[in-house]
Structure formats: C-alpha cells, structure tokens
Amino acid sequence: MPKVRYIFLWWMLMVLSTGYHAVAQGLMIRNYNVKDGLANATVYAAVQDKEGFIWFATPTGVSKFDGKRFRNYSKKDGLTDNDVVKLSADSKGRVWFSTLNGQPSFYWNSTIHTAQNDSSLHVDARGQYMQFMFEDYAGFIWFLNTDSRIIQYSGRKTTYDKLGAQRTNLFYFLRNDTIFKPLQPYFNMVNLRDSYNPDQRILYSCNFPMEHAAVERARSYPVIIVDNNLYTYSNKEAICFFNGDDWGIREEISNICVDNDNLWIGTPRALYYLKGFFRGERNPVKLLQNHYITSLLKDRDGNIWITTFGDGVYNIPYKNFYFNYLDNTNGLYSHSIFSIAKDPKTETLLVGQNAGVLNTIDNNNKIRQFNLDTTSGRNSIVSILPYKPNEMLIGADNGLFVFNTLKQKASLLKPIKTLKDVDIGPGGKIRVVTKDQVITDDYSVGVEDDLITSITSINDSAYYVGTNAGLLYGSDALRTLRIPGEDSSLHRSIKDLKWIDGNLWIGTSDHGLYVLHNNQVIKHLSTADKLVSDICQQLYYDGIGRLYVSTNKGVSVIDVKTQTLIRNITSNDGLMSDDTRGVYYQQGILYIATSNGLSYFQDDKMPVDTVPPAIYLNHVRYGDSTYLPGKQFVLLYQRKASFEVEFGAIAYDLPDLVEYQYNFSSDTSSGWITTMSNIVPFPDLQPDTYQLQIRARKYRSNWSQPVSITVTILPRWYQQWWARGILILLGLTLVAFVLRDVIRRIQRAEMRKTEYNRRIAELEAKALTNQMNPHFIFNSLNSVQHLIMEKEEKQALNFLADFATLMRQMLNNSRKSHISLEEEIAFLTRYIELEKIRFANVFTYQFILQDDLKDYTIYIPPMIIQPIVENAIKHGLAPKNGSGRLEMKLVLREDMLYCSVDDDGIGWERANEIKSGRLIKHESTALSVIRERLQIIKSFNGNVGKLEIIDKFKSGFGNKEGTLVEILIPIVKML
Question: Using an 8 Å Cβ cutoff, are 44 and 22 in contact?
Fold first, then answer.
C-alpha cells in the first residue's frame, strides 16, 4: 500500500459582508503522490468505473486505484499515448481515455482496447483529441473533438464526421438532452448563448437560498461554468445558482462537485467547501490554498477526490465530515491533551494540556489560552471537574486551581506538588491525591512505598484510593488507609477509579477493568471480552448509563447496568490517535482527548461502513504464464508449477484492515481460510477440477459475496488413463523381460552350477568306480594264483584270457558315467563265469529279468551291481559246505531299477563273524563305496537310490539261509 500522508488542515470561514464570526475547525485529508505509486504528480482528471476503481489521468499515463494499490498503464501497456487529458466512464463499464493524439481507446474486461487490437476503434483522428463525450440511449458513444467534429462509436465501428463534414459545438449535444447523456457533470464554456436555440431562457441572477426545484436541477442537470458562475442547463433554460463574487471567490472556477447538500468548487488557486450550501447555509471554507485544482470527484462511498496540477491527489474520507478536530494547528497550545470537561452552565469547553496551559472554547467557537502553572518541569493539567456555578476545579501537577468560566479567569486554590488526581464528593468535599498522600481540608494521610494514582469518593466521609500496588480504602472517621477484602485482583496496579451506583469500577494498568461490589470482584472485562485494550488510562461516566474507558488503543464504551461492552472507538473510526487520555459527553456530542489532538462528533451519527468491499481478480499465474482475470481457467498440467491467484478489494477507507477469506474445494482443510495477503498460492496442483472462492470485508463491514473461479488442470498425455495403462503395460512388459532375463541368468547360473556339480559327481563316481577296479583286479589275481598253486595251468590260462577280456570291458565301462543294462549283464555274466572257475563250480547262477525291460534301453552306472555279486560269491557261497545258488533279479520300478542279489550261502551275520573273528557287524569297503555312489548320483540326478542287506535266516524267511541284497538304482530310460 502507498504510504499515505495525512495532512491536518484547518480552515477559516471567510469574513464576509454578512458579518459572520470566524471559527476554526479541523479536517484530515490524505495525499497520494508519485512515491505512493501514482503515475505523475500532475493529475488532469479522475473518474470512478462501474466496478468501483478510481482512475486518474496524467501526462505519463493513467493510474487505476483500489484504495491500497496503484496500477499504472502507459503506451507499453497498450495506451495510444501517454498524455491522457480526460477520462469518462460509460454505462457498460468502459473507461474511455482522451489522449492528445486523438486515437480513441478504452479499458474493459481487464484489457485496453485500441485500434491495434480492436478494429472497431480504427479511425483517422486527424491530430485532434476527444474533448467531450456523450452516450445516447442506444448505448452509442459520441465524441466532440477539439476541431468541433463529431465522432461516433457504435460498438462495431468508429465513424468520423458522423453528422456530415461540418463543424458543430457543445450546444448541439446539450440542447438534444433527450438523446444524449453527458459523461461528465460539468462543462467550462465562454458563454451560454446557443444560436441554434433562441427560445432558451437564461437567468443570470442567482437566488440564495435556493428553492427546492432549483436544488433538484443542480443535482440532475449538467452544470455550465462561465468564469466564476455556475448554471444549471437544459434545452429550455439556463439558470444561475452560484455567483463566485457573492461568496468571495474572485478567480475563475475550473471544476465543481455536488455532494448531497454540500458544494465543492475548485479553482486554479484553491479548493472551496460550501458546507450545507443546498440547505441555505452560508459556510464557505477555503482549503488547499495555492493548489491548482484540476478536477473533483465524489465516489460512491461519499469520499471526495481532488486532483491537482503538480501536487498529486487529495482524498477526504467520507467519515471525516462527521468529525471535528482541534490541535496546535488550529487553535490549541499543543496536540497533546491530558484532560477535558465542559462547564454545564456556560457550555465552555476546557482542554487541559502540558506546560500548565488551559484552552477554553466558548459557544462562538472562540479559543483562548490560559497559563495556569508556569513551574518548570512536569506541569500538565491532569484533571478538570465541575465545581460551583460558573467555576471549574482544575488539578495540575503543581497545584489546585479554580477557573471562572464567566470571567474567564483562573485562581490558585492550593499549591500541591506532584498532584495525581482530584475528586469532589456528593456534598462538595474536595479530595486530592499526590504521589504519596491523600489531602483533604481537614487532614492528610500518607502512603509509604506505593505510588498513588487516583481517588474516588463513595460519599463525603469514605473513599477509595488507587495505587500502583492495588486498592486502598479510607474514611474521614479513621483517617487511615487499609486494604479492602482479600481478593488478589485488588492488588493490581490501578490507573483510575470511578464510583457508580454502589459499584466501584477499577481501571488497571495492564489487566483491564474490574467491578467491585461490597469489596468483592463481581466482573472482570479485558481484551478477551473485546475491550479495546487492557491498559486503562482514564474512566469517565456520562451520567446516563455509559462508562467510557480511555486506553492506549482507543476508547471502550461500557453499559454500566449490564456491565457489558457496547462498542469500541479507535483511530479507525476517525479519532486523531488511539492514545486516548480523557472523554467528555454532553447533549449528544462526544469529546475524546488524545495525544494527537481533540476529536469531537455527534455520538449517534458516528459513521459505520457496513457495506462489504467489491472484490476483484487482478491476474492468475500458473508456472511462468500469467492470465487475465476470468471465471474459468483450463490449464495444462505443469510439473511442480504453482497456481497463484492475485486479487484485491476496493476499499478507500482503512484499506490495510481489509481481510480476505478463501475456500478451495479440493483442499483437505474445511471452511474458510482467513488471510491479510492478496496473493494465494497453490503449489503443484494435480490434474483435476477445482473451485476457488474468495471474499473480503472491510473494517466493521460484512463479508462480501464470494468471487468464484473454476480451475481445470488438464493432464498431460502421459497422465491420461489410457497412457497410464499403456505405460503400466509397457512397464510390466519391461519388468517381465527383465525378470525373464534375470531368471534366465539365474537358470543359466544354476545350470552351470548343476553341470559343475554333476561333473564333479561324475568325476567322484568315476573315482569311486576306479576304486572298485583295483579291488576287482586284486581278487581276480588271487584266483589266478590259486589256480597256479593248484597246478591247474590250462585252466589258469583260460582264466587269464577271460580275465583279460573282462579287464578290457571294465576299462571301457569305467570311462562312461552310464552303461546299458545289457552291457552290465554281459559284464556280470563273464565275471560270474570266472568266479565259478575260481571256486570249482560250487554254485550255479541265474538272471531273472522283467519283461518290460525289453521295451526300453536302460542305462545304469557301471560297477554298481558287481561288488554285491562278488560279496555273495566270496563271503556267502564260497564258505558254504556243498553247492550253492546265486539268483539276480532285475525289475523296472518307475525311474528306478530294482536289483536283488539272492544267495543261499552262510548268511550275512555268519560271514561277518568269519571275517572279523568277533561278533561285530562289519560292512565291506565295496558296499560303503556303493552307498556313497548312490548318494552322489542323487546330488546330480535327483533320484534317491537304496541299498539294503538282509540276512534271510534272521529276517523271517523261514529256515532259509543266505543273504538277500536289494538295491534301487537310478536309471536313464530310453525307448
């Protein structure tokens, strides 16, 4: 907001021939200039548009003002020329700019329309600017330029010389007043004579007071200014209603403003305020002396705007007309006031100030000054009370005085140092308190340590005293002071006391207001109860049920009967300062003394603006883009972009106190959010439709109707449901590919690991097989040795031949991980035949094969059955007395080969006893290797092999002896 300067003006009613007395009254007026944001200090004209904005025309563009911010427009913003000399607002809400280059242009819907962006405005202005503007009843705009040519704007096109290529004058529009409505309230002319209207009646003499009909004409008809005279004008008559010479205005009148019953007149030298002119009152006031007044405007709120040549814009808020102000600029000794009262008989107003100065204002508003106390140091007048007829009792820092209002003379009643307060009892008894004692005519009583601040009388014999440490009670009978009651609230620092109808009202230094009855606190009022401040400075009772509490932030008015707050009065309502020192009320006039002067006004007519402000949108930002105001916005989503709305409220009085509330429909929070900022950001809005509502209120007004904005954030293509579906599908496909690749990698790794383990297992199996080879060779060589020792050379040679063949077959098989079942049976057959030779054919053998084995080619690990057969022959059949039998059975069980080796030898237990010589079980190395090989085959094949040795005699095979060995061998089966 611009830093507005408040100028305190005082006016002097001019001493005229009518013999009126001079009177001084104050008026506060605001000034706006370039440093506040105004485009130029020279302002030609002002106009208010349909929305409520005030526009100012300057040599460097136009300024649009909402009461807080100026928005300036120049050529770079779209104006046809920076030098704008006139402004006009039509019925459609357009603001027209009259520029020196003559090109028509207007502002509408947040855009400056010119021939560059609006073809309907294209016209050859021929270097003449639009001097006057009218609107007909069809809504067409008519211009009269400085070359006396008529231009018409129809909304579709602009036509030069609309009525033909001939010159005309302003009277053409004025006499056709049934067709044309002027877009300005007054016109400056050289004379009134219209040669085309000879029947028009012109009255040059001015009658005052004005008749009712003349007043209505002045309010409704255009006004013609000729020199320093004013005329109401119609096509039938022109009647003078103001003559400047009769009112002491000698200079030429440049502009006027009709303000209800008041008339404002601007001249190149000053501003004149004729208060009550249309009511027949003669109260001319001269303001802004030596200011060139270029235009006057009364806005819809009643504020007066004064534009000047070189001094910016002045504004008089409407409520200031309800207040009167006095300070050192218009009669008082200084601006700081400490006490105030009025003599009820002579109605003389007394104003106590510093330096011992008393100001009096009589019925004729004549101000006088009296220096009651010339003592150096602090000597303010702190108390003024009605005393006797025509006498007022005045307490100053250094003495007690009596002032005779009739004689206008002060006399010292008693010299008293450090006087703090004075009170007069119901019977007229005077009590005075200083900083440390209570003084009466009969006695005085002191107070130690505490600082006395105030006193109030209950009656002529009892009283209360306020100190910085709390409340004290005193009586003339006891002549002592004591603490009344035990309530802790009575120990607050006290500033003032007031006894009203049996209750004691206590104003404290920082805890608000207490009400005491029978020494008990019955009420406490503070800022929590809307008291304007907890720092009370003075209490005043008006005698009709209202207590006024002066504080450092204004005055609170309390209803004494209900003990409730009625209202607060602050500088926002029109006081000169919030630092209030005292109040006085009489016959509807409320006087309030402040540290910045005296404000007084009619209490029942204090203006309260309850009309909500007009709220507007300034612009909308989304990301790096800015958009003009509108109702709906459809925007494409931008990642991490902030949606920002800038708005404002049109309020020319107390614009800094305007509050805003907004509600965002898609926000998770509920209700209205209050803010003082006019910018609301919404970061990173996701695609959706939102509704934003904004409303505002002024000081003490209601909330305005909300302005609604619908915002639709459109998703990017990748945020559409189909795009998201595709992206999800692509993502899943990619994940599938990645997973497949990962699985393949894992599978390959597992395969490599499995193959590695399988190779290791095969190598281990081969190693175990190779362990079997030496075992077999050793046993076979033992057999050859046995034959040689038995002298069986031929049989030994045959054995060696068969053994060689068997060895060759065994070596071939040892290089393989698997051999066919046929090969294994052939190998076992040759081996058994050799063993039969070795053991002299003491046993027979037989292979029993399942028929299903013929349908498949079955592969088994080599050298896995041979050790079992060998153990059956060597340890089961060989030790047996007599012939034996060996049976080998092969059966297919799913993916396993069941093989049983059954002998009828001595049995497993007996064989172990023979081998070890002890009754301890012993398993051969060959069988241990078989078990280990089956476990290794399981690690890379997955099939679980099994080896079981059964002693038939001990396992329930009847009386049969021998050993049955069963083995399940993992196989590879092929058709």
Answer: no
DSSP 662-727: EEETT-SS-S-EEES-SEEEEESPPSEEEEEEEEEE-TTPPPPPPEEEEEEEEPPGGGSHHHHHHH
Q: What is the DSSP string of 947-963?
A: EEEEETTTTT-TT--SE
Q: Give the number of residues written for the chain.
A: 975
CA-CA-CA-CA torsion sign (328, 334, 337, 343): negative
User: What one-character-per-residue DSSP string does 580-625 give?
Assistant: EEEEEEETTEEEEEETTEEEEEEGGG-----SPPEEEEEEEEETTE
pLDDT at 143: 96
Residue 610: strand pairing partners: none
CA–CA separation, 846 and 156 (whole Å):
124
Contacts of 612 (CB under 8 A, 6+ apart): 695, 696, 697, 698, 701, 702, 703, 704, 705
Helices (H) and strands (E) in the chain, counts: 8, 72
Among residues 843, 815, 820, 975, the alpha carbon closest in space to that of 902 is found at 843
Strand 857-860, strand 105-108: pairing: unpaired
Radius of gyration (C-alpha) of the chain in whole angstroms: 60
**What is the three-class DSSP state of 781?**
helix
Q: What's the pLDDT tens digit per position in 835-879?
A: 887 777 888 999 999 888 888 888 888 888 888 898 888 888 888
pLDDT digits (tens, 9 = 90+) for 536-589: 999 999 999 999 999 999 999 999 999 999 999 999 888 989 999 999 999 899
- Measure the CA–CA gap between 565 and 569, rounded to whole angstroms: 12
Tell me the C-alpha distance between 453 and 468, whole Å: 7
Q: Is the pLDDT of residue 889 over 90?
A: yes
Instruction: Look up residue 490 and give its DSSP letter.
Output: G
Which two tokens mark 945?
A: 């092999």
- Token pair in block for residue 191: 């004379």
> What is the CB neighbour count within 10 angstroms for residue 959?
6
Q: CA 451 from chain center: how many Å?
A: 49
The answer to whether the CB of 536 falls within 8 A of the CB of 494 is: no
Q: What is the pLDDT of residues 662-719, one digit of tens each?
A: 998 755 456 899 999 999 998 988 888 999 999 999 988 899 999 999 999 998 877 7
Q: Which residues does 741 contact at the CB level (< 8 Å), separation at least 6?
A: none
d(CA 360, CA 184): 46
Sheet holding 223-226, edge to edge: 186-188, 223-226, 229-233, 237-243, 201-203
Six-digit token string for 49: 């548009």
Beta bridge partners of 265: 256, 272
Q: Which residues contact 17 (CB under 8 A, 6 or more apart)?
A: none
Determine the Cα–Cα distance for residues 353 and 339; give it in Å rounded to an integer: 7
HSE toward the beta carbon, residue 651, CA cutoff 13 A = 26
Place of tokens 């200083």: 434
Give dist(CA 959, CA 808) in Å, integer. 42
CA 17 to chain centre: 63
Q: Which residue has the tokens 């954030």?
A: 713
Tokens 């920002």 belong to 644
Quickly state the pLDDT bin for 759 (edges 50, 70, 90): low
pLDDT digits (tens, 9 = 90+) for 150-183: 999 999 999 999 888 888 999 999 999 999 999 9
Strands 632-636 and 707-714: parallel
Angle at which helices 721-789 and 793-814 pack, to 10 degrees?
170
List the structure tokens of 704. 């305005």
Coil, strand or helix at 543 = coil
Under 8 Å between Cβ of 483 and 494: no
Yes or no: say if 434 and 417 are a contact pair by the CB < 8 Å rule.
yes
Residue 7 pLDDT > 60: no
- Rounding to the nearest 10 degrees, give the CA dihedral for residues 772, 774, 779, 784: 140
